[in-house]
Amino acid sequence: MSIHEISNPSLRISVSEKGAELQSIFNINTGLEYVWDADPAYWSKKSPVLFPIVGGLKQNTFYYDQKAYALNRHGFARESQFSVIEKTEDRICFSLVSNETTLQLFPFHFDFRITYQLDANKLHVSYTVKNTDQHVLFFSVGAHPAFKVPLVEGTSFNDYYLKFSTVENADKWPLSADGLIEKTSIPLLKDTQELPLTKELFYTDALVFKDLASTSISILSHKTSHGITVLFNGFPYMGIWNAKDADFVCIEPWCGIADSVDSTMLLSEKEGINQLEPNAIFSRTWTVETF
To answer: pLDDT tens digit string along 265-274?
Structure first.
């Protein structure tokens, strides 16, 4: 697996060509690694990129132009080989262009680019989608980074909590056994900016939010000054996840969401789907700050 490294005086990161997947965020000043180690006993990914769908499809199928297409959960980008099209000391850009393989799964021409840019102790991750087709492009895109919890020795998972940038009153949307969004939400956050972390919080799968007021979420602990903040302005959906009993938390900004249990399975009617006109460009950036 080809791995590329970029750095600045504060951070050193590595990214694989497969999936353009972030492999490491190492803060030179704190001496800490912030990305989960991908222990296959729990979850063998680190930060898969979700494209051209986020989450699962009903029956793993969508319909477009009266034809059925099969597409696995989170789409094919995470298993695809990306090309490096730009690399400097502190910036790298990867590209995935539609091809015969992708067109069998997803009948649209596109140029999907992922850029990693270092900025002091921050990493900016940008997704750019260009519609190179003659028709409207329907797609979703999202992030799935897994951050180490506990982050420092001498602390435990339960010593950490999530802090939202704004006081929240937000429900979570439960997932069916098939990974589809149920019809009824469940109250979770009530007049609070904080959510204590426990392994049990995730025993029924991810926490899925549709209406957070916050534009950032931090992983913090009262037992250490170290942590991370994920900034996600422009991403309307959020998933927070942990593989059962694993030592990480994923903070997942999404432009898109899994199908609901009552989905029509028509791509053009999919909740949260983005529509991009021919030759138009869609761009979003999320940022992780390490400290």
So the answer is: 999 999 999 9
